[in-house]
């Protein structure tokens, strides 16, 4: 995996110029291209939402009616708020389900945003946004000239099938390294078909339309210089990206000196290097490993107690590291629940605790992660999934601390990937096994052993 | 594996007997199931070797292919199988009841009520293991595109008359087996595995003999010991005492018993063809039928133990009362059976080789709905299953310690009573989470408000209280009631509306075009059979 050296020569690389060049090409293909679709691959924190908002504004300015398809209500609301912030005069429609609390009540404050559960009420507005699930129920309407499909790699092929009749042309934006969509029943029956309903929307789209222009955003603005090379190497080995900032641009420091405990030492390590591995003794544990959960909670507690301060390119003044800038990530929901309980017992409030699936697309200053393979006797496809580790290890602007039982490397060696090979299915590189080893060997350099 | 099933397996190890993981039977068992124990030839995908089949446990029909590589003999086997299976499958087609169904009128686009027939009962096939289900699907796949001499006089190898039809039905059963909760084609190992946890791994549970040994060990033996013997015990000739449930056979049987017997059959057949006169031919015919009888008795000796094991499994399952909601799922099987009956009667072509984009998406959606429905229904039917959900924080049981009347702030205030539930469970309730309970078979929903000072769960009841200002009698829980609330919905929501196949969008390759008649697989130089 050798990239062209000149392209990665730090002195010759101007991140802003590279990003702007990519954006210009995307807008050109979207606004003036002849193809019905344009695909944009975006690594973590590469300004995907900004691209979606800017493209939406350009299309609206060109007088082309636009529908935006996102995957969750939170994503839709976020896009509406960003659009409103960028252009307060643009008439925007928010199509929502008929459930109570179907959308963020903050939208009601915005005069230019019309909300409705019926697509007919929103006809004629420049931009209409909703979730894929809601769009799938819209029928008997004039098709939109243009659509933007956000998080297209997390959308299932069958969800695209349900909404693709609503638009003429579309821009598909997403992160190929995050979690693939899944189905709760077996779908081997359709493996290898170009329109396998359980595959991602983009893989079906490209299987049927291989000539579509494909772009990628080359710069991650979120990931610090300490993280971008590892994430790029481990999860995007063929489409490398760079950090938009250099090593000196960001700093994390603490007002209170460490007390010498393992938790404080791992925080100090992470503050200096951007990574920290808090390693508990090897042991097979239930999913909600009480020691690991307690360790996670204590790391967060110390993170807040020690008066963390962050410096970044966003502002000249140091900013205090507050609870809302910290997230804890786990693989399973019961683990997240156990961490929430443990945090509450330590009196910590306001820290986000969620699974990888729900942390997709979110950004924090510091993340504390329970390694998906920690304490497990086996390495199943679920726990090995590349996207899961990628999401967990790429949410932070400053530092990421991983809590893990020792012995994961041996576990990986005992469980080589054994998924059956399906004819006609493109093999995904890198596989989870490989990516896990890459990340683990890097984390090993920032290891602090903990003996509770 | 959930915590409760891990616990059950640990208890099974400790006690030496499988532990129940269900208190009711979660699948319909037909009064008259058809048991099918097929065997396949090693190294020849989809080449049947023989089968025991029938509805009478005392008198199964034995079908044998003495030389599995002989196309004629294979067709003869399939024709016999059709003779045995099709009358059973079709015997349910005649008795129907009238049902009304909502359909969209193709001309006006309006919903109209249509009276349709629904068969009152449906066939049920039981095979020993998951591999048997797959073999049924494969047999269906290999037969449904075959042509009979009547359909196509020029076909080089015409199939016996009823074979393509059997292929269509077996394909239907194979597809149906992918639908969670369906009981049209069942694998005995999966049925038993759903209701009992053994002290071995789920991989080992795929051995029907070992699984039964754990559930019902012989007197004086522990489940582990009996399972060990079932898996590995061999007689003096080195043959397994408990032959594998198939369709694959034991290599020791193939090498030492079956291969020599097939060779004798081949020799006898060659000798018969070379016979010089009638008297000579009579002798050699006698040798041939002796060789054939030998193979038949070998096949019977390997299938009969499995046949008996499947019926023993049925006996064990019948000791459990049927779960109330399994009837609803069986009705879906009835609809599916009736639908396929109608397609066959209407002369529609066999199921296509591959689903088109819309059909594949629709099937996946329906199966996901069925899975969600099945998980909810099993929990609602069975306190032991619900206990597993409670342990994972997806449900909670507790006593109502307080009930306060409250109203919504609408123009017409609606009842929104607040109740407090004291529970020992630890549900994962987030802000505003919805919870459900079963009220006369219908789900009543409530919203999580918060915890009170003593840790009681405060809920706001949202619906099923009637239209008036005062809630209907019995619709609001009272102090002292013991209730079970779930965080999951009790019924699956219908999925997205998919376009018609002719409207397949450009992202999915456009409309599939006119269906062309499916041809059987072409013969290639690699086809040596």
UniProtKB/TrEMBL annotation, chain A:
Q: Which Pfam families match?
A: AAA_12, AAA_30
Looking up InterPro entries in the UniProt record yields: Coronavir_polyprotein_1ab, DNA2/NAM7-like_C, P-loop_NTPase
Report keywords, A-Z: ATP-binding, Helicase, Hydrolase, Nucleotide-binding
Stretches assigned to the DNA2/NAM7 helicase-like C-terminal domain? 292-405
Keyword Hydrolase in record: yes
Output one GO MF annotation.
hydrolase activity
Q: What is this protein called?
A: AAA family ATPase
State the species of origin: Streptomyces mesophilus
Q: What lineage does UniProt assign to this protein's organism?
A: Bacteria, Bacillati, Actinomycetota, Actinomycetes, Kitasatosporales
TrEMBL record, chain B:
Q: Which parts of this chain are annotated as the region Disordered?
A: 494-529
> Protein name, please?
Cytochrome c oxidase assembly protein
Classify the source by domain of life: Bacteria
């Amino acid at each position: 995996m050798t990239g062209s050296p000149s392209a990665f020569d730090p002195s010759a690389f101007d991140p802003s110029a590279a990003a702007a060049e990519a954006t210009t090409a995307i807008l050109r293909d979207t606004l003036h291209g002849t193809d019905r679709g344009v695909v944009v691959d975006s690594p973590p924190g590469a300004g995907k939402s900004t691209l979606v908002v800017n493209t939406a504004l350009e299309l609206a300015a060109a007088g082309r009616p636009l529908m935006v398809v996102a995957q969750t209500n939170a994503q839709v609301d976020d896009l509406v708020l960003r659009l409103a912030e960028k252009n307060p005069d643009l008439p925007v429609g928010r199509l929502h389900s008929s459930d109570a609390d179907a959308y963020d009540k903050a939208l009601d404050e915005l005069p230019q945003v019309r909300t409705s559960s019926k697509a007919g009420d929103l006809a004629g507005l420049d931009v209409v946004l909703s979730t894929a699930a809601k769009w799938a129920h819209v029928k008997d309407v004039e098709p939109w000239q243009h659509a933007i499909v956000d998080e297209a790699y997390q959308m299932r092929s069958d969800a695209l099938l349900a909404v693709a009749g609503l638009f003429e042309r579309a821009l598909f934006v997403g992160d190929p390294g995050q979690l693939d969509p899944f189905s709760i029943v077996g779908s081997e029956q359709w493996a290898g078909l170009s329109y396998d309903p359980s595959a991602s929307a983009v893989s079906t789209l490209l299987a049927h339309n291989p000539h579509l222009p494909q772009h990628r955003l080359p710069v991650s603005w979120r990931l610090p210089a300490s993280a971008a090379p590892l994430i790029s190497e481990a999860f995007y080995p063929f489409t490398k990206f760079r950090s938009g900032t250099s090593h000196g641009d960001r700093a994390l420091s603490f007002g209170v000196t460490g007390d010498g405990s393992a938790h404080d030492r791992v925080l100090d390590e992470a503050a200096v290097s951007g990574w920290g591995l808090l390693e508990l003794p090897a042991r097979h544990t239930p999913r909600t490993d009480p020691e690991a959960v307690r360790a996670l909670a204590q790391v967060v507690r110390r993170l807040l107690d020690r008066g963390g301060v962050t410096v970044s390119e966003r502002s000249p003044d140091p900013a205090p590291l507050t609870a809302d800038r910290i997230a804890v990530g786990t693989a399973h929901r019961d683990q997240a629940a156990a961490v929430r309980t443990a945090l509450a017992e330590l009196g910590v409030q306001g820290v986000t605790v969620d699974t990888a699936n729900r942390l997709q697309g979110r950004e924090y200053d510091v993340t504390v992660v329970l390694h998906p393979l920690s304490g497990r006797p086996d390495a199943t496809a679920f726990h090995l999934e590349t996207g899961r580790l990628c999401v967990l290890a790429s949410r932070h602007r400053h530092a990421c601390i991983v809590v893990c039982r020792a012995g994961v490397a041996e576990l990986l060696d005992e469980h080589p990937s054994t998924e059956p090979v399906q004819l006609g299915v493109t093999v995904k590189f890198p596989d989870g096994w490989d990516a896990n080893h890459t990340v683990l060997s890097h984390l090993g350099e920032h290891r602090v052993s903990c003996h509770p | 594996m959930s915590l409760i099933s891990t616990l059950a397996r640990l208890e099974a190890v400790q006690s030496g007997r499988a532990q129940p993981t269900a208190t009711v039977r979660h699948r319909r068992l037909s009064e008259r199931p058809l048991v099918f124990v097929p065997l396949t030839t090693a190294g020849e995908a989809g080449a049947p070797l023989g089968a025991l089949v029938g509805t009478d446990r005392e008198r199964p029909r034995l079908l044998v292919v003495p030389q599995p590589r002989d196309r004629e003999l294979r067709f003869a086997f399939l024709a016999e199988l059709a003779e045995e299976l099709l009358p059973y499958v079709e015997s349910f087609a005649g008795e129907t009841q009238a049902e009304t169904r909502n359909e969209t009128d193709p001309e006006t686009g309006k919903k109209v009520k249509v009276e349709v027939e629904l068969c009152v009962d449906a066939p049920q096939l039981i095979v020993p293991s998951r591999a048997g289900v797959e073999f049924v699907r494969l047999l269906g796949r290999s037969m449904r595109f075959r042509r009979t001499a009547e359909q196509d006089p020029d076909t080089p190898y015409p199939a016996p008359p009823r074979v393509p039809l059997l292929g269509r039905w077996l394909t239907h059963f194979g597809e149906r087996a992918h639908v969670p909760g369906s009981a049209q084609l069942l694998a005995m190992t999966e049925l038993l595995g759903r209701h009992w946890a053994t002290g071995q791994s789920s991989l080992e549970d795929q051995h029907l003999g070992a699984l039964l040994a754990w559930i019902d060990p012989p007197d004086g033996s522990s489940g582990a010991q009996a399972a060990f013997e079932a898996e590995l015990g061999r007689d003096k000739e080195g043959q397994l005492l408990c032959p594998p449930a198939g369709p694959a056979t034991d290599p020791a049987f193939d090498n030492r018993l079956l291969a020599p017997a097939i060779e004798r059959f081949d020799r006898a057949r060659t000798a018969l063809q070379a016979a010089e006169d009638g008297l000579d031919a009579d002798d050699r015919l006698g040798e041939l039928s002796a060789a054939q009888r030998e193979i038949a008795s070998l096949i019977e000796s390997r299938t009969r133990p499995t046949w008996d094991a499947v019926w023993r499994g049925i006996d064990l399952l019948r000791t459990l009362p049927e779960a109330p909601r399994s009837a609803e799922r069986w009705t879906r099987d009835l609809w599916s059976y009736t639908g396929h009956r109608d397609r066959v009667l209407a002369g529609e072509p066999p199921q296509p080789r591959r689903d088109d984009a819309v059909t594949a998406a629709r099937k996946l959606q329906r199966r996901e709905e069925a899975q969600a429905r099945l998980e909810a229904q099993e929990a609602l039917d069975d306190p032991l299953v619900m206990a597993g959900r409670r342990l994972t924080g997806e449900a909670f049981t507790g006593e109502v310690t307080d009930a306060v009347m409250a109203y919504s702030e609408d123009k017409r205030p609606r009842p929104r009573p607040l109740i407090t539930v004291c529970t020992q469970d630890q549900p994962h309730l987030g802000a505003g989470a919805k919870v459900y309970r079963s009220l006369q078979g219908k789900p009543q929903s409530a919203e999580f408000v918060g915890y009170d000072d003593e840790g009681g769960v405060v809920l706001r009841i949202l619906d099923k209280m009637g239209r008036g200002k005062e809630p209907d009698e019995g619709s609001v829980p009272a102090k002292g009631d013991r209730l079970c609330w779930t965080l999951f919905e009790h019924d699956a929501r219908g999925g997205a509306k998919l376009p018609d196949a002719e409207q397949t969008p450009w992202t999915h390759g456009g409309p599939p075009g006119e269906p062309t008649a499916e041809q059987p697989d072409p013969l290639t130089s690699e086809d040596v059979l």
